[in-house]
Every structure is written in C-alpha cells, then in structure tokens.
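Q: Can someone sanity-check these two? First one:
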Amino acid sequence: MSDEKNMIWKNTILKDSATIKEAAENLEFNKMKIILVINRKDELIGTVSDGDIRRALIKGKKINNSILEVVNQNP
C-alpha cells in the first residue's frame, strides 16, 4: 500500500479510548470525513462523523469526553 493511502487510513481509525476532541482533530485532516472506532481487539465498534460530534456538543457533551459517547454503533 502506498504511503499516501496509509496516511488516509491512519487518520480514519481511532481506538475506543480516544476523546471527542481527538476525533474532531482527525476529521479536520481526514479525506474520508468519517472515523472508524475500534476496540482493543481491533474490532469495529462504530463510526463518528462531524455531525455526530456537533449533535453531542449541542446536547451538552464535553470535548474531552470519551469518543464512545458519540459513536454510531449502527453505521
């Protein structure tokens, strides 16, 4: 896989221990505009989009909260 493709995927995947802020930062530079959230076993938990983050912040979630508070488990 080319280095460019590796960089695209690197910014697309986050562990379930990440914060909402980390997801927002990754989305800023992510060409696919979606985050894939994985667990410790590298299994897909769900996805996060900028809309998911925006809706969570409107509902009062804090930027340093867990990404699990915004993950869409039924992508």
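And here is the second, same format, sequence then tokens:
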Amino acid sequence: MYHALEVAKLLLRFAYDDDDDITNLKLQKLLYYAQGRFLAAYDEPLYVENIVRWTHGPVVPVVYHEYSRFGSNIISRPRQSNESRFSARDLRSISATYHVY
C-alpha cells in the first residue's frame, strides 16, 4: 500500500508525459477513481489515506493541501515520481485509471 501523495505524483507524471494539463480538481477525481478501481480489482486499498466528501467532489486532504497553491490553475511538473516504488501490477492499474479517465 502507498501514500496518496506518491500516487498523485505518478498521475502527474503520466499527465505531463502525455502533454496533458491537470488541475487539483482533476487530480482529486483521478485519485478517487484509482482507489475505487484498485479496491474492485484487488480487494485492497491502493493508498492509506481516507477520501472525504467536499462540495466539489471527493478529496484526499493531504494531496489537496500539497497542491492548493495552484488554485484552479494547472499543476506544474512534479520534480520526481518514485515510479520504482510501485509494483508492475500497481503501475498498470494506476496507468489504466489515468488513461481511461
């Protein structure tokens, strides 16, 4: 199991590799879908943090606060994602979530 910030950095890397723009709102929705798909596929959570209900949708507060300085603007390229920390299965699952949603 991972931390949501690790998964968020990986999702951001996928977005920038695909030359896609991503905001905090979109990142939160991707984290929500990634957790749900992972739970459905493997009957275990992808990351340890809880998802909470906010006005504009599901939020992982620690990730929201990490990127809140961008407001509703596009999040700039992350310095690094520790892709090597993820198993091949988990990378495939997160990548599939990103590319589907």
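A (reply): Looked at the second one. Residues 24-42 form the longest helix (19 residues). Strands lie at 52-54, 57-59.
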